[in-house]
Design a protein that fits this description.
alpha/beta, 10 helices, 11% strand, 2 domains, 5-stranded parallel sheet, 57% helix, single chain, Rossmann fold
């Protein structure tokens, strides 16, 4: 178990991160944790989109980076415009991440505290770029979901209806799977041959034992 970020914080149940490369199936794993075991899951990617849409400070910061075209006249986030600008100018992408990731972390902590007060034994924070953003450093434990690269490519091609070249381009934006596995406290293999539920149950029991 990792050392908590601050020893002065009020003790809560463990915050557990779960991540994996694109197409690894981490969302499927999270669904089993939630629906079968009752563990609350914070979807960081979903909340990032919500905060970008609704948080006044974040909106102001994004407009400061990308200009007024970052939002439509109706106030909706202009995702295609921002994505095009961010990925063509790495400095703007870095500035965007520097705004969004801390905002999501604050929301995640508040959400976790609520779940802890309700008596849950631990919570899960799901994020695609958890290691890349450094947000795993704020968590107590890390689960990494893995799958062979060829299977991951096939899954994303079928799921998103995109060619292999686009999937590989997305993969290049993420750290290699081996680097994430090296940081993991637990690894769940989602290769289609090993049953997921027994692996998840084993990890669940180990987390419960560590948090006692």
């Amino acid at each position: 178990m990792k050392t908590p970020a601050s020893t002065n914080e009020k003790k809560t149940c463990p915050r557990v991160g779960i991540t994996g490369g694109i197409g690894s199936g981490k969302s499927t794993v999270c669904r089993i944790f939630n629906e079968v075991l009752g563990i609350p899951v914070f979807d960081a990617d979903y909340w990032a989109k919500e905060l970008i849409r609704t948080d006044p400070d974040l909106i102001q910061g994004i407009v400061g980076i990308f200009g007024p075209d970052a939002y439509t006249p109706e106030g909706e986030y202009n995702r295609p415009f921002v994505a095009s600008a961010a990925f063509s100018e790495p400095a703007k992408l870095a500035a965007l991440n520097a705004l969004v990731h801390p905002a999501v972390e604050i929301a995640s902590r508040a959400w976790h505290d609520r779940q802890s007060r309700e008596g849950h034994p631990y919570t899960l924070k799901e994020a695609a770029l958890m290691v890349e953003s450094g947000s795993h450093l704020h968590l107590d434990l890390l689960i990494v979901v893995t799958a062979p690269e060829s299977l991951r490519i096939q899954r994303v091609m079928e799921r998103d209806g995109i060619p292999e070249a686009q999937v590989r381009a997305r993969m290049r934006a993420q750290l290699p799977e081996a680097e994430k596995v090296a940081l993991a406290d637990f690894v769940i293999v989602n290769d289609g041959s090993k049953l997921l539920t027994p692996q998840i149950w084993a990890v669940h029991q180990k987390i419960l034992n560590l948090s006692r």
